[in-house]
Write a structure and sequence with these properties.
Blueprint (H helix, E strand, L loop, with lengths): L38 E4 L19 H11 L7 E3 L6 H4 L5 H9 L9 H6 L12 H20 L5 E4 L20 H10 L5 E5 L6 H6 L6 E8 L23 E6 L5 H19 L3 E5 L17 H12 L5 E4 L6 H15 L44 H16 L21 H18 L4 H10 L22
Parallel strand pairs: 1-2, 1-3, 3-8, 4-5, 4-7, 5-6, 7-8
Helix pairs in contact: 1-10, 5-6, 8-9, 8-11, 9-10
């Protein structure tokens, strides 16, 4: 009689058992490598027609530039195109407070001055101005992310794209950092109805504080954010010690970086961390926020990433063949944003795009892409003040080791019974919020006295465990810019 010698060792990502190569491969939730990738592209019809204000860096018009390039490359012929409906008020209430949604629904530039109390309460002002048809704008980009999530959950697409989404700073009851409605949280909640575990990845230069805060107490969502971290950079959160709390402890991972990180350093760190994370957590689906303000020469960013490097992160996550929701985010040089997101749309379709942009000279958008009219333009040419790379190899290696040590606390992926989402899934009980906010206030006062170097030394030397048991500095209302 022949016995099959199945492996009895740990399935830890740090151990490879050669005998497992002979075992049948699990196919559930995976696309076969020989299958044609089914991509669904969501573009709300009027999302690019809104205006934050003359001097505001956020320009929804970048969506029109992106869409023109996508159409110019004829990518619409390779994927399904969707103009989704607006999110309903009830859908927004799945995450946001009813009084906040009601405020967004009724506030206008004309009556805003009469709502002074609410203006302060909901954190609108310079960063988050009140502009014409604000609520409709929120409904459009949130509706697109919800529709994309449903497309993935139904199994009718392998990758769903909504470049108008990815507004990761919005909180449960207030606006923050140009963001009013957190479409990412809404989309993840939709995915959780069908997928036991969801992985959220954020490559925006700003910390994904709104999403992290929303799932800080949950072990069904693991959030990973790669971002600049310093005392004076918005939102001032995202240090190594923010690891989650309660059931969600060790389900929040942060990769704090300094100015000027280059392609090689970023890609190496990203691949090393994400491979271990995906192998350990074993997500059923992935949400990837592709904020383009991490590109070189962004008006608010300080990294030195090229479009090719940014896209390499998308290509790497795509290679795991899991249902993938791709969203936009930050990005404040419109031509760079459009180039980047068009290139990454091509990556999703396994296409090599011509470096010459397909825009005729008589097109209204032609002048946005001067002087070279190339897809892979040298972004450093847009800004003569190149940021020096302050990320030493030693510090990056320390961060990598710390993150991988944190992953060991997860043991194996959590076992979750699939059922309808309960009302308190995200742990927003009143007593939890009070305890969290009380600790936040003391942390904010203590951290505000430290310099950037102090913060890094404290984090790296303590192996990222911190003194606050992983409490985020989330509710600080720091301004991204001044008008």
């Amino acid at each position: 009689m022949t016995y099959t010698d199945y492996p009895t060792f740990s399935d830890s990502p740090f151990f490879f058992d050669r005998r497992s190569a002979s075992l049948p491969e699990q196919e559930e939730g995976l696309m076969r490598s020989h299958s044609k990738t089914r991509v669904a592209y969501y573009h709300p019809k009027d999302v690019g027609n809104y205006h934050y204000g003359e001097r505001h860096p956020m320009r929804p018009h970048r969506m029109e530039l992106t869409n023109q390039l996508v159409l110019g490359y004829k990518l619409h012929e390779k994927m399904t195109m969707h103009s989704p409906r607006k999110a309903t008020e009830n859908e927004l209430l799945e995450f946001h407070d009813s009084d906040y949604v009601d405020f967004l629904k009724r506030v206008t530039p004309k009556n805003a001055q009469n709502l002074t109390k609410d203006w302060t309460k909901f954190n609108v002002g310079d960063d988050c101005p009140i502009f014409h048809d604000l609520f409709s704008f929120c409904q459009q980009y949130a509706g697109a992310s919800l529709a994309a999530a449903r497309k993935l959950s139904s199994g009718s697409a392998d990758i769903a794209i909504n470049w108008s989404g990815g507004l990761h700073h919005a909180k449960k009851g207030e606006a923050s950092g140009f963001c009013y409605v957190n479409d990412i949280v809404l989309a993840i909640l939709e995915l959780l109805r069908y997928h036991p575990r969801v992985l959220y990845i954020d490559i925006d230069i700003h910390h994904g504080d709104g999403v992290q805060e929303a799932f800080y107490l949950s072990n069904r969502v693991l959030t990973v954010s790669f971002h600049k971290y310093s005392a004076d950079f918005f939102p001032g959160t995202g240090n190594l010690s923010e690891i989650g709390s309660d059931l969600g402890k060790y389900f929040s991972l942060n990769v704090p970086l300094k100015d000027g990180i280059d392609d090689e350093s970023y890609i190496s760190l990203f691949k090393s961390i994400m491979e271990s994370t995906i192998t350990t957590f074993k997500p059923n689906s992935i949400v990837l926020q592709c904020g383009a303000d991490s590109l070189a020469s962004d008006r608010l960013g300080t990294f030195n990433l090229s479009i090719a490097a940014h896209g390499e992160c998308v290509k790497f996550i795509k290679s795991f063949n899991l249902p993938l929701l791709i969203l936009g985010g930050g990005g404040y040089r419109q031509s760079s944003v459009a180039r980047c997101w068009t290139y990454e749309t091509g990556i999703c379709l396994n296409l090599n795009l011509n470096n010459n942009l397909p825009i005729p000279e008589n097109n209204n958008y032609f002048e946005f892409f001067k002087p070279d009219y190339k897809l892979h333009s040298n972004l450093l040419d847009f800004n003569s003040n190149t940021n020096k790379n302050l990320n030493s190899k030693e510090n990056l290696e320390k961060i990598r080791i710390i993150i991988k040590e944190k992953l060991r606390y997860l043991n194996n992926s959590p076992s979750v019974q699939l059922q309808e989402i309960p009302n308190d899934l995200m742990g927003f009980q009143i007593n939890e919020e009070l305890n969290l906010n009380e600790t936040l206030n003391s942390e904010i006062r203590r951290e505000s006295k430290l310099t950037d170097n102090d913060l890094y030394e404290k984090e790296l030397n303590s192996l990222g465990n911190g003194d606050s048991d992983g409490i985020p500095l989330g509710s600080t209302r720091r301004k991204t810019f001044r008008i």
